[in-house]
Inverse folding.
């Protein structure tokens, strides 16, 4: 064959083969580029990047409690009356007004002096809306006046308190500081940015409200995966490269995801969505006497988690999304239909079960003073099994421990019951007689009976606490509370219980076990006059005892609900006189700074 023909054939083959080779190379490089983007550290990208694929979820989220958790104060967000409206509390007249597009309040400020303060942000929107005022050091402070959305009027969050400028609860002080107290659960990717040397904040967020990435984590890697051509999407990434994939979560994991904000807890640092365990970033509060009644019902604001984890539903694998639309922040169904998703209507939604009239049946409402209970209230599942309490004046929250009404426990120790919540003109004895008539006289033992004795430091409670702490059939938060109470006792059985707790499979049990394992058996008991870690002398107090020289130390105690209005709320707390001020603490447990008494603990 002639040379020129051979050359022509080779050239033709080169041209024919170069095009697919070029396309293959480009596809390979595109895949590498997409893969490198996916492997980069995840960053927050904002909810607008989620819309193309998740518009339905976004539409349900719009206008929800999460969407309106916080906003810049403007015409679209402010619900309160700022048209020169006035509100008077304890002789102080506050005036709410506008200057152009800006919102102001004239009220008492630092030192008690009147002044004009600009509202920069709204905080929540139902059933009340609060307002944030900027102060030096990057601080935002919550006004003590809030807007009642239903009644459309201003009201004071602490109507029974005369809060002086030096009080911890006074609105310009630490208790009402947004940065340290509230911020992390009302915005997305929030970093507190506290500088202890300057005593100042440089708080930042990626989105001002609770948006997609607050729960699902930073979405850049997921967006990069979704934006890549289908054939170029990595097949090795898990969960579509989501940091948090809620679709594959089990019930416990979902509850923990929500617990990050819906719990009363101690924060260990800025939240990281990649923590492997809840306790790596925060420690939930146990069933302490300042937060819960003796039987575990809600007393103070505890934000659901500590209640729900006590429930039988939680132990059976029920999760938040079984009852709540997590995007719209509303119940999935109304009334008893929510419970009848799982519970048989022919058994539980009947007169034979609840013994009350249904809504619409003839009858008279219960009237006690200004309180009116309409006919049909007693037939609603939640009113008997989730009796709630009002917080922040107008915010009614249901107890999520989902318990059976127990008037007998109300008679045994201070604990509310659903019966007298409606029948407030009746006694616990009256309620118990009807419960026995309807359901029989048998009552299961309750851990609250042991906790009541332990809170009074009665010696016979020790055996019960050890039994509860070692019994895996009890909820983890109950077992952990038993360990916490057991730390005030001593003895070999107690020591063995704490050592066993350190080997428990549940992290909450282990961390509770560490709280008492270092204390030596036979440590001396703190009595009246013993010297405590503050260097002062401890004196026992009773409920209502005056706490003298109100100051910073008492303010610390106020934060835990120990002191109110200069008086002790609970019996058995020590009153310590020190060079630095007054301290109130339960004998042998902790001082206001969290330090233990130097001479042991109560038996």
């Amino acid at each position: 064959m002639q040379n020129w023909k051979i050359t022509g054939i080779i050239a033709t083959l080169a041209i024919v083969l170069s095009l697919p080779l070029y396309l293959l190379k480009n596809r390979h490089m595109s895949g590498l580029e997409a893969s490198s983007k996916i492997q980069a550290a995840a960053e927050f990208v904002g909810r607008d990047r989620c819309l193309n694929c998740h518009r339905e979820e976004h539409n349900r989220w719009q206008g929800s409690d999460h969407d309106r958790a916080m906003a810049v104060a403007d015409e679209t967000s402010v619900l309160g009356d700022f048209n020169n409206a006035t509100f008077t509390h304890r002789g102080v007249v506050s005036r709410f007004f506008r200057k152009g597009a800006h919102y102001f309040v004239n009220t008492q400020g630092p030192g008690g002096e009147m002044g004009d303060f600009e509202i920069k942000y709204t905080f929540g929107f139902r059933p009340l809306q609060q307002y944030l005022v900027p102060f030096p050091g990057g601080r935002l402070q919550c006004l003590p006046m809030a807007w009642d959305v239903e009644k459309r009027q201003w009201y004071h969050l602490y109507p029974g308190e005369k809060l002086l400028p030096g009080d911890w609860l006074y609105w310009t002080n630490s208790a009402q500081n947004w940065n340290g107290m509230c911020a992390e659960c009302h915005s997305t990717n929030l970093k507190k940015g506290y500088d202890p040397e300057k005593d100042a904040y440089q708080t930042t967020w990626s989105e001002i409200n609770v948006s997609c990435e607050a729960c699902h984590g930073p979405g850049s890697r997921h967006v990069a995966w979704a934006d890549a051509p289908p054939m170029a999407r990595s097949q090795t990434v898990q969960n579509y490269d989501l940091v948090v994939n809620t679709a594959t979560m089990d019930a416990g994991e979902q509850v923990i995801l929500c617990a990050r904000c819906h719990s009363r807890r101690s924060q260990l640092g800025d939240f990281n969505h990649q923590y492997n365990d809840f306790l790596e970033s925060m420690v939930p509060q146990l069933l302490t006497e300042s937060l819960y009644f003796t039987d575990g019902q809600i007393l103070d604001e505890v934000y659901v988690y500590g209640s729900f984890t006590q429930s039988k539903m939680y132990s059976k694998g029920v999760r938040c999304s079984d009852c709540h639309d997590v995007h719209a922040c509303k119940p999935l169904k109304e009334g008893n239909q929510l419970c009848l998703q799982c519970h048989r209507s022919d058994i539980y939604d009947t007169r034979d079960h609840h013994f009350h009239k249904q809504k619409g049946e003839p009858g008279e409402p219960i009237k006690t003073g200004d309180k009116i209970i309409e006919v049909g209230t007693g037939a609603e599942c939640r009113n008997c099994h989730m009796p709630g309490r009002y917080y922040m004046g107008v915010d009614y929250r249901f107890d999520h421990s989902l318990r059976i009404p127990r008037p007998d426990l109300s008679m045994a120790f201070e604990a509310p019951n659903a019966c007298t919540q409606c029948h407030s003109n009746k006694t616990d004895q009256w309620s118990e007689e009807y419960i026995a008539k309807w359901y029989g006289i048998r009552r299961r033992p309750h851990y609250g009976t042991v906790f009541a004795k332990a809170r009074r430091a009665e010696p016979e409670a020790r055996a019960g606490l050890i039994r509860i702490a070692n019994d895996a059939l009890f909820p983890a938060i109950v077992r952990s509370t038993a360990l916490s109470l057991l730390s005030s006792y001593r003895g070999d059985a107690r020591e063995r219980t704490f050592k066993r707790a350190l080997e428990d499979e549940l992290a909450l049990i282990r961390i509770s076990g560490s709280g008492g394992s270092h204390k030596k058996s036979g440590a001396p008991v703190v009595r009246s006059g013993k010297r405590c870690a503050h260097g002062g002398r401890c004196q026992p107090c009773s409920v209502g005892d005056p706490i003298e020289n109100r100051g910073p130390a008492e303010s610390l105690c106020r934060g835990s609900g120990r002191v109110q209005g200069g008086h002790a709320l609970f019996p058995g707390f020590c009153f310590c006189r020190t060079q630095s001020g007054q301290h109130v603490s339960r004998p042998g447990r902790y001082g206001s700074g969290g330090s233990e008494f130097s001479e042991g603990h109560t038996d």
